Amino acid sequence: MDRAQIVHENFLSRVASGDLPTGAPPCEGLNKTDAVSLYHAQVLSRALDRTSRAMQKAGQGFYTIGSSGHEGMAAVAHALRPDDIAFLHYRDAAFQIARADQVPGQQIAWDMLLSFACSSEDPTSGGRHKVLGSKALMIPPQTSTIASHLPKAVGAAYSLGSARRHAPEHRELPEDGIAICTFGDASANHSTAQGAINTAGWTSIQSVPLPLLMVCEDNGIGISTKTPKGWIEMSMEHRPGIKYFRANGLDIFETYAVTQEAAEYVRTRRKPAFLHLMTVRLYGHAGADVPTTYLSKSEVEADEANDPLLHTVRLLDQSGAMTPDQALKVYSDTCARTDRVAAEAAKRPHLQDAKAVMASLIPPKRECKPSNGPSADERAAAFGSDMRAMDDPQPMSRLINWALTDLMLEHGEIVMMGEDVGRKGGVYGVTQKLQHRFGSDRMIDTLLDEQSILGLAIGMAHNGFLPMPEIQFLAYLHNAEDQLRGEAATLPFFSNGQFTNPMILRIAGLGYQKGFGGHFHNDNSLAVLRDIPGVIIACPSTGAEAAQMMRECVRLAREEQRVIVFLEPIALYPMRDLHEAQDGGWMTRYPSPDQRIGLGEVGVHGDGTDLAIVTYGNGHYLSKQALPELQAAGVSTRIIDMRWLAPLPQEALLAATKDCKNVLIVDECRRTGSQSEALMTLFTEQSDHPIARVAAEDSFIATGPAYAAPLPSKDGIVAAAFALTGATK
Question: CA neighbours within 13 Å on the CB side: how many for 694?
């Protein structure tokens, strides 16, 4: 007999015989009607766990990580408002069920069983995953996440204070709302959780509003590894800036009272709190897990004896709200009803093909109020003396700064955040003067934690802001890449487009910094970005392009709710000259604010037909340097600047190279995992051109004089072009 069946039969026999566990009497605060309602939610959560296992055995269900032992979360939900955004742990079915009772018109059992069955009619994910989540209940969907949702919960809490000062057009959350995140005691040890908790305290002690309730459901174990006794309390009770609360999660009366106190503190003080909720875990980690393989039988039985449903039956009896016989009938009726509903849910349709699965990768467009842009007076006041320089060619860094200024003037919902972006103006000065122009509310200097930077952006996007986070160097993204892959990009996918978190992530990257910084400051690998479904990657090579592409990226994020990575080549930030010192050949003028370069629009430079060089970023610069030698050898050449690296602008590239005899790909990223691989595939499959590539070696970049040794060069491009075309000097 498996443990689920043992727990079930224990409940039936112990309630029938009056053999209920001992505990404190019911405390004040929770009335009888609400207590009974919470018991119904707890029982439905338990019944769903049992049914999910039966569905899996029958081949009708696809998820068995249950909530048994954590049913006290129903009381947590009841102490909060249904418009308080909640980022939930995967064991929180009781929370979602209890919240559904607060919102009219919900069919929570049916909806959750559709999710277990992965039916295309599942109102949350559309059949893509079994998730907790609901737009109507303000619960963004989470899957089997381990703490990765905490940074965005911090961001959502931060957005509540920001929205009071700068209400965005697409504001989602109420002015007096709070944000909630829940997680297990084992998850609390994850670096992502520790970073988020640290960020919450760091923010709080600076008197920045952060109405966040963190709920740690402490069942004492993570899969098979025990949490040391007292660990959560010792590590959290005295954290600076965070108020600590503790409750017995087996007691719905105490849990409700303590949660209500904690929520009131967060809501009125606008400060974060940590609610430590003691629970048990029943059935093991998931359906295939056998807890007696790593716990003694006595330990397993001790938790089962503390079944929270048994405690609730006792408390209801002691409060006069419901007799044990009545409670037993509710349990039996709910189990039977859940089985009947599951049988119907299992018959509902599923997603049938790749197109249907992928339909929610791209979020839906949204209506935005039209903008005529800032007035001449507003621009003059913001730019000051910079206005006089706009008619002269400038390097890329300055044009990006001007583009950001114009965009922030036009769209008040744009906020930027990152290490040193505000007062310092960025490591390379790209965001200089912006904090002076727009204030620290919109130019946020963050602590040095990339996960928190991206989490802040994701959370603020949940409340209608348009975030533009900055990662200081491309290599630093790897500390936080899961915030893009596992959170930002998946949100519309798992919510069937109901939740979105649009943003423009600015990253300074790529190589050619003439010996500065080694591989941490010269990272030429984009593989981790290129394979994230739905993410747009933009990479300009000139200042004018950067300004026009940035405007398109803001449009894409604002109107089409896209997640965009805007990769800025560091070596080209200050670049002025192309062929000779002081020739000014790489500087451009600031394009009119109404000019932009559309997604997928490539740049075609020249009309030569002997050779098309397909490139981007620094490769564009190097190819232009190689052009005089190619022309001198009689090789008529055109240079095609990709600009958009994902999605790959296939049609535009094929059209731009159609009448060329040869195609040379110049890719500054590593040969393995680079854009050149996709481009070689494209031209091989869909054209007859002779094709070759120049790419970086599979190496990190060194510090010092050898910095450029593994990278493409002007001479390497010339040699490859001659070999491909048969030309000679």
Answer: 28
- The pLDDT tens digits of the residues spanning 206-242 come to 999 999 999 999 999 998 999 999 999 999 999 999 9
Are the beta carbons of 415 and 167 closer than 8 angstroms? no
Alpha-carbon gap, residue 41 to 634, rounded angstroms: 79
Note whether 150 and 183 are within 8 A (CB): yes
CB 216 within 8 A of CB 274: yes
Pairing of strands 611-615, 603-605: unpaired
Q: What tokens were used for 494?
A: 């798992």
Determine the Cα angle at 245 with ends 242 and 249, to 5°.
140
CB 545 within 8 A of CB 607: no
For the stretch 619-638, pLDDT in tens is 999 999 999 999 999 999 99
* Tokens found for residue 502: 């649009």
| Rounded Cα gap, residues 243 and 238, in angstroms | 8
The answer to whether the CB of 450 falls within 8 A of the CB of 489 is no
Among 676, 665, 667, 664, which residue's Cα sits nearest to residue 611?
Answer: 664
Give the helix/strand (H/E) hosting 723. Answer: helix 714-725
Cα 439 from chain centroid?
26
Answer whether 0.85 is exceeded by the pTM: yes
Q: What is the DSSP letter of 389?
A: G
Q: Which of 468, 464, 410 is nearest to 160 (CA)?
A: 464
